[in-house]
């Protein structure tokens, strides 16, 4: 622990932590990495190319071999979420699709020991470590001229989406592109932008939201935000996973993204100023169309809505045109992101199982997590 941290803790009064009913219930068997350093045995990096897809190279972020990245190709970095690992979503969907179709390198990060169930709260507290270790790798790759900055694209699913946003705080140069695949909501509703993925984290941030009432965020978070099948349920999920359709909703984001890499029809979304306007049926059905996913235009901005099929191939191409301009004309709506709902997040349909039976106020817990990290983990 750094001396300043110690002093701040003393000033803040350690007793308030000890007497805290919420921190007190955290499962002591859940591992929280305090004072951990990078490189770290619990955050590992695996490099895949088309030739090594079954035998990835484990990278040492402080002793990189430039020959591993020859010839020069774009680099895609994949980040899993809660309970994940390097062969879990989004890796299992997106990595093969990338290697089949594009001449790229893929790095799958594995931080499974830090995000094990049933330790969601501990997982959230471990993310700054993952973010720092990722930033260390990227800073070294770029500074040593091994991979050009412009060729790096970070793709994070769920908690991995939030890691991508946090990593940006430690990067020497703002990344070119971050894709957030249904970035995680629990314990990020009240977060500041340093802890949460937002448009400030990369030159271009594209986000796909598929479980807006559950595990994923509702509010727009990027330059461009896509909302496939906006609503409580993704088509096919009740059939696929009747016991937990939410996890199926959530995982649709990496599935759609993987399909978008080589989709002949494409996922075409239509712009609407916000999901609220969309819900009220007030979007113009003749507004701008744009392609969602891997091949999204990097100049695009705004919120876009689309429908998909219930099973692969999910993409439906262009939506039908209907003329509702008479209704819409009455509302002078901007076609960009609307400001009205920026701070709004619906309550979770399901809360965090870890806290459910203990009747914990997640808002209160989240405030404490923010407070803690501002002390322990200065993000700048
Ligand atoms: C990757 O290798 C497979 C054969 O193993 C080949 O069919 C495919 O075209 C390769 N992908 C690229 C992008 O070169
Ligand atoms: C890695 O995680 C395990 C828990 O999964 C923990 O016991 C161990 O101390 C961690 N290692 C480091 C270096 O933090
Ligand atoms: C990509 O899509 C095209 C046509 O949609 C198809 O013919 C081709 O096999 C696909 N490529 C791969 C590697 O699956």
Automatic annotation (TrEMBL):
<dbReference type="InterPro" id="IPR013818">
    <property type="entry name" value="Lipase"/>
</dbReference>
<dbReference type="Pfam" id="PF00151">
    <property type="entry name" value="Lipase"/>
</dbReference>
<dbReference type="GO" id="GO:0005615">
    <property type="term" value="C:extracellular space"/>
</dbReference>
<protein>
    <recommendedName>
        <fullName>Lipase domain-containing protein</fullName>
    </recommendedName>
</protein>
<dbReference type="GO" id="GO:0016298">
    <property type="term" value="F:lipase activity"/>
</dbReference>
<keyword id="KW-0964">Secreted</keyword>
<comment type="similarity">
    <text>Belongs to the AB hydrolase superfamily. Lipase family.</text>
</comment>
<feature type="region of interest" description="Disordered">
    <location>
        <begin position="339"/>
        <end position="359"/>
    </location>
</feature>
<dbReference type="InterPro" id="IPR000734">
    <property type="entry name" value="TAG_lipase"/>
</dbReference>
<dbReference type="InterPro" id="IPR029058">
    <property type="entry name" value="AB_hydrolase_fold"/>
</dbReference>
<feature type="signal peptide">
    <location>
        <begin position="1"/>
        <end position="19"/>
    </location>
</feature>
<feature type="compositionally biased region" description="Acidic residues">
    <location>
        <begin position="346"/>
        <end position="359"/>
    </location>
</feature>
<feature type="domain" description="Lipase">
    <location>
        <begin position="40"/>
        <end position="314"/>
    </location>
</feature>
<dbReference type="InterPro" id="IPR033906">
    <property type="entry name" value="Lipase_N"/>
</dbReference>
<dbReference type="GO" id="GO:0016042">
    <property type="term" value="P:lipid catabolic process"/>
</dbReference>
<dbReference type="GO" id="GO:0017171">
    <property type="term" value="F:serine hydrolase activity"/>
</dbReference>
<keyword id="KW-0732">Signal</keyword>
């Amino acid at each position: 622990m750094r001396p300043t941290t110690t002093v701040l803790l003393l000033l803040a009064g350690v007793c308030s932590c000890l007497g805290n009913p919420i921190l007190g219930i955290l499962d002591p068997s859940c591992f929280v990495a305090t004072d951990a350093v990078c490189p770290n045995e619990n955050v590992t990096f695996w490099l895949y190319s088309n030739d090594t897809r079954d035998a990835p190279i484990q990278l040492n972020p402080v002793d990189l071999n430039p020959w591993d990245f020859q010839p020069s190709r774009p680099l895609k970095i994949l980040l899993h979420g809660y309970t994940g690992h390097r062969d879990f979503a989004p890796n299992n969907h997106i990595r093969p699709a990338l290697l089949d179709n594009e001449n790229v390198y893929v790095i799958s990060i594995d931080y499974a020991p830090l995000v094990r169930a049933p330790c969601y709260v501990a997982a959230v507290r471990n993310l700054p470590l993952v973010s720092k270790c990722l930033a260390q790798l990227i800073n070294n790759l770029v500074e040593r001229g091994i991979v050009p900055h412009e060729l790096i694209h970070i793709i994070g699913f769920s908690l991995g989406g939030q890691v991508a946003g946090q990593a940006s705080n430690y990067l020497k140069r703002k990344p070119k592109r971050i894709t957030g695949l249904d970035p995680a909501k629990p314990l990020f509703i009240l977060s500041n932008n340093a802890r949460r993925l937002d448009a400030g984290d990369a030159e271009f941030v594209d986000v796909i939201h598929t479980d807006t009432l559950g595990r994923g965020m509702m509010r727009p978070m990027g330059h461009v935000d896509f909302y496939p099948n906006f609503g409580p349920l993704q088509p096919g999920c009740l059939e696929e996973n009747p016991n937990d359709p939410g996890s199926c909703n959530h995982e649709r984001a990496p599935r759609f993204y993987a399909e978008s890499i080589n989709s002949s029809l494409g996922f075409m979304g239509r712009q609407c100023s916000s999901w609220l306007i969309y819900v009220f049926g007030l979007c113009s059905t003749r507004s701008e169309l744009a392609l969602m996913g891997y091949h999204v235009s990097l100049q695009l901005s705004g919120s876009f809505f689309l429908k998909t099929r219930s099973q692969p191939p999910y993409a439906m191409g262009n939506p039908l045109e209907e003329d509702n301009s008479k209704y819409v004309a009455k509302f002078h709506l901007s076609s960009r992101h609307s400001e009205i709902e920026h701070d709004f997040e619906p309550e979770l349909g399901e809360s965090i199982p870890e806290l459910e039976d203990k009747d914990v106020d997640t808002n209160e817990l989240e405030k404490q997590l923010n407070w803690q990290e501002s002390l322990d983990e200065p993000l700048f």
